[in-house]
Design goal:
- The protein is mainly α.
- The chain has one domain.
- It is 85% helix and 0% strand.
- Helix 6 crosses helix 8 and helix 8 runs antiparallel to helix 9.
- It is globular.
Length: 217
Amino acid sequence: MNKELIKKIFSTKAGVILLISIILILSTSIFLIIMYFFDSATSSKLATMIFTNLFIGRVPAISFGYASNLSHFQVIAFNILAEMILVTLIYSLFVFSFDGVLKIKRLEDFFSRVQKKKEEHNEIFIKYGKLGLFIFVFIPFWMTGPIVGSIIGFLIGMKHFTVIFIVFLATIISMTLWGLFLQEIVNFIGQFDIRFIWILIAIMVVSVLILKYKKRG
């Protein structure tokens, strides 16, 4: 990547969002490294939970957090952080790809699926605008959520920071409710045998991986 391209990227609003993503990644990494020297067990649990969210999904990550005896605040806050890292990163990359600034081959298939999703619900998004985007991000159905929602927000013509703000707000509320719901389930199952929780998490992880594999196939 040459200097002119870097300058072009970071001189745009999408570039600022990419910069936010980089700052979030670096600050989170530094925090976990420093924390490791004071409380290695908690740092390892938080890191595992974040990676679970990034690569597998919200529900297994939250369940893992509660099963690992992390506090409610830690589970919610760090899962929100993980999703905002993904949103700001993938959203900015999509904008650059859409504008022809960058081409990310590995993400092109995902981007095309998101555009199809937008076309399916185009009338709803045009009619309800910001509220429609909020609901789309808030409700956790397949191919909905913060990443897809942010891209659709861009495709229907919303301003960059408006999209990120709506997605961030919807993610906070949705994640908090998911956390309260899953915390009750984990606490209930934990009354019988903690192994049931880990079996449940394992089943969720395998199910998500199978679904992702089938989608790619």
